[in-house]
Amino acid sequence: MDVSLTKRRFLLSLGVVAGIGATLGGCGILGIERTSETFDLTAPRDVKSGRASPAQILVPEPQALRAFDTDRIVVRPRPAEINYLADAQWSDRLPRLIQARLVETYENSGRVRAAGRPGQGLLVDYQLVTEIRAFEFDASNASAVVEVSIKLLNDRNGRVVATEVFRSEQASTSNAAALVTDALDVALDRTLRDILTWTLKHV
Question: What pTM was estimated for this model as a whole?
Answer without folding.
Answer: 0.82
